[in-house]
User: Fold this.
Amino acid sequence: MALPLAWPADESDSDFIISTANQEAVRHLEHWSLWPVMATVLTGPRKSGRSLLARLFAQKARGVIIDDAERRDEEEIFHAWNAAQATRRPLLIVADARPPAWRVTLPDLGSRLAATPSAVIADPDDVLIRALFEKAFAGRGIMVPPELAGWLVPRVERSYVAVGRIVDLLDHAALAEQRRLTMPLARRVLAPMIDPVAAT
Assistant:
């Protein structure tokens, strides 16, 4: 039986892959001392590496992180924002989106967030999608055909979440059949998910 095991996230610079989808966000965080206020809102899709990037930032800049900010107490964020200005210790607020998409009810917090710069991780480009597939397979110790990652890129949903879901699906299928992950196996397992036009 193939068990749905969760794989731990890695925590090093080499585990965060920089591409055109996130290089502007990385550059912004590298130059935190130039921020107009000692805070930034980091946004991006789920599974885009935003939390890992935030932890790397906190290690390098001795900063403070508030992750999943939309689900945190607004008073907590308000006081953390004020503390960052007083101590000059940078605050990184990680969220799905910045206000007004993220509805803030505390007026004082809303005004502070309006004055806070933002860094955005965009949807993945082809280079990043391929690198994420290769990293995910290698991280699990899965031997795959060298052409598999390139074959997947134009045929699957272009999202960070999809990469993890597809690697899970292929890994579980190979384990269930007690065989190596091959191109024929990948084609068969993913056939219901692939656009017939892209499959040619």
Summary: The chain has two domains: 22-120, 126-199. The chain has nine helices and four strands. The CA atoms of residues 81 and 91 lie 7 Å apart. The radius of gyration is 20 Å.
